[in-house]
Amino acid sequence: MKTIFAKTTGLSDRPFHYCPGCTHGIIHRLIAELLEEMNLIEKTIGVAPVGCSGFCENYFTCDMIGAAHGRAVAVATGAKRARPDRFVFTYQGDGDGASIGLAETMSAAARGERITSIFVNNCIYGMTGGQMAPTSLVGQKTSTSPYGRDAMTMGYPLDLPKVLTQIDGAIYVASVSVDSPQAIKEAKKALRKAFQVQLDGLGYSFVSILSTCPTNWGVNPVEALEWLQTKMKPCFALGELKVPATEGGSEA
Q1: Other beta carbons less than 10 A from residue 63's beta carbon
Q2: Cβ(94)–Cβ(120) below 8 Å
Q3: Which residue from 157, 205, 220, 229 has the highest number of Cβ atoms inside 10 Å of its Cβ?
Q4: In the chain, which ranges are E strands?
Q5: How far is residue 107's CA from residue 169's CA, in Å, rounded to a whole number?
Protein backbone atom coordinates (compact mmCIF):
# COMPACT_ATOMS: atom_id res chain seq x y z
CA MET A 1 0.00 0.00 0.00
CA LYS A 2 1.31 3.44 -0.92
CA THR A 3 2.13 5.68 2.02
CA ILE A 4 0.61 9.12 1.50
CA PHE A 5 1.52 10.60 4.88
CA ALA A 6 4.00 9.65 7.58
CA LYS A 7 5.10 11.28 10.79
CA THR A 8 8.27 13.27 10.29
CA THR A 9 11.48 12.07 11.90
CA GLY A 10 12.09 15.68 12.89
CA LEU A 11 9.70 15.23 15.82
CA SER A 12 10.03 12.91 18.78
CA ASP A 13 7.31 10.45 19.83
CA ARG A 14 6.45 12.56 22.86
CA PRO A 15 2.81 13.80 22.67
CA PHE A 16 2.32 17.56 22.44
CA HIS A 17 1.13 19.09 25.70
CA TYR A 18 -0.20 22.36 24.25
CA CYS A 19 -3.69 23.65 25.02
CA PRO A 20 -6.53 22.55 22.70
CA GLY A 21 -6.62 24.83 19.66
CA CYS A 22 -3.07 26.14 20.09
CA THR A 23 -1.26 26.13 16.75
CA HIS A 24 2.27 25.61 18.09
CA GLY A 25 1.90 21.96 17.13
CA ILE A 26 1.20 22.79 13.48
CA ILE A 27 4.21 25.10 13.35
CA HIS A 28 6.41 22.44 14.98
CA ARG A 29 5.39 19.95 12.32
CA LEU A 30 6.20 22.31 9.46
CA ILE A 31 9.66 23.03 10.84
CA ALA A 32 10.35 19.36 11.54
CA GLU A 33 9.21 18.32 8.05
CA LEU A 34 11.58 20.83 6.46
CA LEU A 35 14.50 19.75 8.63
CA GLU A 36 13.91 16.20 7.39
CA GLU A 37 13.23 17.10 3.76
CA MET A 38 16.32 19.34 3.57
CA ASN A 39 18.52 16.76 5.35
CA LEU A 40 19.24 19.17 8.21
CA ILE A 41 18.26 17.26 11.36
CA GLU A 42 21.79 16.10 12.18
CA LYS A 43 23.24 19.52 11.27
CA THR A 44 20.80 21.72 13.18
CA ILE A 45 21.01 23.65 16.43
CA GLY A 46 17.70 25.09 17.62
CA VAL A 47 17.47 27.74 20.32
CA ALA A 48 14.35 28.26 22.42
CA PRO A 49 13.83 30.73 25.28
CA VAL A 50 11.30 30.98 28.12
CA GLY A 51 7.56 30.70 27.43
CA CYS A 52 5.36 28.24 25.57
CA SER A 53 7.87 28.37 22.72
CA GLY A 54 10.54 27.00 25.04
CA PHE A 55 8.80 23.64 25.23
CA CYS A 56 9.73 22.90 21.62
CA GLU A 57 13.03 21.46 22.82
CA ASN A 58 10.98 18.48 24.06
CA TYR A 59 9.72 17.72 20.56
CA PHE A 60 12.36 18.47 17.91
CA THR A 61 14.90 15.71 17.33
CA CYS A 62 17.71 18.11 16.43
CA ASP A 63 20.12 19.52 19.02
CA MET A 64 18.47 22.22 21.13
CA ILE A 65 19.78 24.93 23.46
CA GLY A 66 17.67 26.63 26.12
CA ALA A 67 18.16 30.38 26.37
CA ALA A 68 17.17 32.99 28.93
CA HIS A 69 14.03 35.01 28.22
CA GLY A 70 14.67 37.23 25.19
CA ARG A 71 18.20 35.97 24.56
CA ALA A 72 17.58 33.24 21.99
CA VAL A 73 18.93 35.29 19.08
CA ALA A 74 22.08 36.19 21.06
CA VAL A 75 22.66 32.52 21.91
CA ALA A 76 21.99 31.51 18.31
CA THR A 77 24.48 34.09 17.10
CA GLY A 78 27.16 32.57 19.33
CA ALA A 79 26.30 29.04 18.20
CA LYS A 80 26.47 29.98 14.51
CA ARG A 81 29.73 31.86 14.85
CA ALA A 82 31.27 28.98 16.79
CA ARG A 83 29.90 26.38 14.36
CA PRO A 84 29.30 28.09 10.99
CA ASP A 85 28.78 24.64 9.44
CA ARG A 86 25.58 24.20 11.43
CA PHE A 87 22.05 25.30 10.56
CA VAL A 88 20.85 27.46 13.46
CA PHE A 89 17.31 28.66 14.15
CA THR A 90 15.45 30.33 17.00
CA TYR A 91 11.85 29.57 17.94
CA GLN A 92 10.33 32.47 19.88
CA GLY A 93 7.05 33.97 20.96
CA ASP A 94 6.06 37.55 20.21
CA GLY A 95 6.54 38.65 23.81
CA ASP A 96 10.04 37.20 23.77
CA GLY A 97 11.23 38.35 20.36
CA ALA A 98 9.54 41.76 20.25
CA SER A 99 9.80 42.85 23.89
CA ILE A 100 12.60 41.65 26.15
CA GLY A 101 14.47 40.32 23.11
CA LEU A 102 13.79 43.21 20.73
CA ALA A 103 17.35 44.53 20.90
CA GLU A 104 18.76 41.09 20.11
CA THR A 105 16.44 40.67 17.13
CA MET A 106 17.20 44.10 15.67
CA SER A 107 20.94 43.80 16.26
CA ALA A 108 21.16 40.36 14.64
CA ALA A 109 19.33 41.73 11.61
CA ALA A 110 21.63 44.76 11.45
CA ARG A 111 24.69 42.48 11.55
CA GLY A 112 23.19 40.15 8.97
CA GLU A 113 23.73 37.11 11.19
CA ARG A 114 23.45 33.86 9.23
CA ILE A 115 20.64 32.48 11.37
CA THR A 116 16.88 32.04 11.02
CA SER A 117 14.31 33.35 13.52
CA ILE A 118 10.82 31.87 13.72
CA PHE A 119 8.53 34.33 15.50
CA VAL A 120 5.21 32.93 16.74
CA ASN A 121 2.78 35.84 17.15
CA ASN A 122 -0.39 35.21 19.18
CA CYS A 123 -0.75 38.80 20.43
CA ILE A 124 -0.31 37.86 24.09
CA TYR A 125 2.07 36.43 26.67
CA GLY A 126 0.92 32.82 26.69
CA MET A 127 2.57 30.91 29.52
CA THR A 128 3.13 33.66 32.07
CA GLY A 129 -0.46 34.74 32.65
CA GLY A 130 -1.90 36.30 29.50
CA GLN A 131 -0.37 39.76 29.87
CA MET A 132 -0.40 42.37 27.11
CA ALA A 133 2.40 41.84 24.60
CA PRO A 134 3.99 44.32 22.16
CA THR A 135 1.77 42.78 19.49
CA SER A 136 -1.52 42.92 21.42
CA LEU A 137 -4.20 44.66 19.39
CA VAL A 138 -5.80 47.98 20.22
CA GLY A 139 -8.83 47.19 22.36
CA GLN A 140 -7.62 43.68 23.18
CA LYS A 141 -8.33 42.63 26.76
CA THR A 142 -5.50 40.92 28.63
CA SER A 143 -4.62 40.39 32.28
CA THR A 144 -2.70 43.69 32.26
CA SER A 145 -5.15 45.55 30.02
CA PRO A 146 -8.49 44.36 31.43
CA TYR A 147 -10.39 47.21 29.74
CA GLY A 148 -8.62 46.72 26.43
CA ARG A 149 -5.37 48.10 25.05
CA ASP A 150 -5.58 51.88 24.88
CA ALA A 151 -3.36 53.28 22.13
CA MET A 152 -3.06 56.67 23.84
CA THR A 153 -1.51 55.22 27.01
CA MET A 154 -0.23 51.80 25.94
CA GLY A 155 0.85 52.44 22.36
CA TYR A 156 0.12 50.50 19.20
CA PRO A 157 0.87 46.90 18.20
CA LEU A 158 4.41 46.38 16.92
CA ASP A 159 4.52 44.86 13.44
CA LEU A 160 8.07 43.58 13.79
CA PRO A 161 8.42 41.97 10.34
CA LYS A 162 7.54 45.28 8.69
CA VAL A 163 10.22 47.03 10.78
CA LEU A 164 12.85 44.42 9.88
CA THR A 165 12.38 45.00 6.16
CA GLN A 166 14.13 48.35 6.62
CA ILE A 167 17.33 46.70 7.88
CA ASP A 168 19.88 45.77 5.23
CA GLY A 169 21.12 42.62 6.97
CA ALA A 170 17.62 41.12 7.03
CA ILE A 171 17.62 39.33 3.68
CA TYR A 172 14.35 37.43 3.86
CA VAL A 173 11.33 38.56 5.91
CA ALA A 174 7.90 36.94 5.71
CA SER A 175 4.69 37.05 7.72
CA VAL A 176 2.36 34.08 7.40
CA SER A 177 -0.40 32.26 9.28
CA VAL A 178 -1.58 28.72 10.02
CA ASP A 179 -5.34 29.27 10.21
CA SER A 180 -6.29 27.22 7.14
CA PRO A 181 -4.85 24.45 4.92
CA GLN A 182 -3.84 26.97 2.25
CA ALA A 183 -2.24 29.25 4.84
CA ILE A 184 -0.30 26.30 6.25
CA LYS A 185 1.06 25.51 2.78
CA GLU A 186 2.16 29.11 2.33
CA ALA A 187 3.78 29.09 5.76
CA LYS A 188 5.84 26.04 4.85
CA LYS A 189 6.97 27.69 1.61
CA ALA A 190 8.11 30.77 3.53
CA LEU A 191 9.99 28.69 6.08
CA ARG A 192 11.71 26.74 3.32
CA LYS A 193 12.90 29.98 1.71
CA ALA A 194 14.10 31.31 5.06
CA PHE A 195 16.07 28.12 5.67
CA GLN A 196 17.60 28.31 2.20
CA VAL A 197 18.70 31.91 2.72
CA GLN A 198 20.74 30.73 5.69
CA LEU A 199 22.13 27.73 3.82
CA ASP A 200 23.22 30.07 1.03
CA GLY A 201 24.97 32.31 3.56
CA LEU A 202 23.06 35.41 2.51
CA GLY A 203 22.20 36.88 5.92
CA TYR A 204 19.44 37.01 8.50
CA SER A 205 16.06 35.41 7.73
CA PHE A 206 12.90 35.97 9.76
CA VAL A 207 9.45 34.38 9.53
CA SER A 208 6.55 35.61 11.65
CA ILE A 209 3.67 33.16 12.03
CA LEU A 210 0.27 34.32 13.27
CA SER A 211 -0.89 31.80 15.86
CA THR A 212 -3.73 31.24 18.32
CA CYS A 213 -3.97 31.21 22.11
CA PRO A 214 -7.55 30.13 22.95
CA THR A 215 -6.82 29.76 26.67
CA ASN A 216 -5.59 33.30 27.26
CA TRP A 217 -7.96 34.82 24.71
CA GLY A 218 -10.83 33.20 26.61
CA VAL A 219 -12.40 31.54 23.55
CA ASN A 220 -12.78 28.04 22.16
CA PRO A 221 -10.52 26.71 19.35
CA VAL A 222 -12.98 27.51 16.55
CA GLU A 223 -13.55 31.04 17.84
CA ALA A 224 -9.78 31.47 18.14
CA LEU A 225 -9.29 30.81 14.43
CA GLU A 226 -12.07 33.26 13.63
CA TRP A 227 -10.46 35.90 15.87
CA LEU A 228 -7.11 35.43 14.14
CA GLN A 229 -8.73 35.78 10.73
CA THR A 230 -10.93 38.79 11.51
CA LYS A 231 -8.80 40.70 14.04
CA MET A 232 -5.14 39.78 13.61
CA LYS A 233 -4.83 39.50 9.85
CA PRO A 234 -6.06 43.05 9.17
CA CYS A 235 -3.54 44.40 11.69
CA PHE A 236 -0.33 42.80 10.44
CA ALA A 237 1.28 42.95 7.00
CA LEU A 238 1.22 39.47 5.46
CA GLY A 239 3.19 37.77 2.72
CA GLU A 240 6.82 37.84 1.66
CA LEU A 241 7.76 41.32 2.80
CA LYS A 242 11.39 41.15 1.70
CA VAL A 243 13.15 38.68 -0.56
CA PRO A 244 16.76 38.32 -1.74
CA ALA A 245 17.71 40.56 -4.62
CA THR A 246 18.64 37.42 -6.59
CA GLU A 247 14.92 36.68 -6.93
CA GLY A 248 14.53 39.84 -8.96
CA GLY A 249 13.02 43.22 -8.19
CA SER A 250 13.52 45.25 -5.05
CA GLU A 251 14.62 43.62 -1.81
CA ALA A 252 11.97 45.46 0.19
Answers
A1: 16
A2: yes
A3: 205
A4: 44-48, 63-66, 87-93, 116-121, 170-177, 204-210, 239-242
A5: 9
More confident residue, 247 or 35: 35
Going by C-alpha positions, the residue among 65, 63, 69 that lies closest to residue 104 is 69
The alpha carbon dihedral of 17, 208, 212, 123 has a sign of positive
Query: Which pLDDT belongs to residue 87?
Result: 98
Query: Which structural domains are found in the chain, ordered by start?
Result: 24-244 (3.40.50.970)
Rounded to whole angstroms, the Cα distance separating 88 from 63 reads 10
Find out whether 236 and 175 touch, Cβ atoms under 8 Å. Answer: yes
Give the number of other Cβ atoms within 10 Å of residue 177's Cβ. 24
Model confidence, pTM: 0.94
Instruction: Name residue 145's amino acid.
Output: S
What is the total residue count of the chain?
252
| Conformation bin of residue 85: beta by default, left when phi > 0, alpha when psi is -120 to 50 | alpha
Between helix 181-199 and helix 24-37 the angle, nearest 10°, is: 50
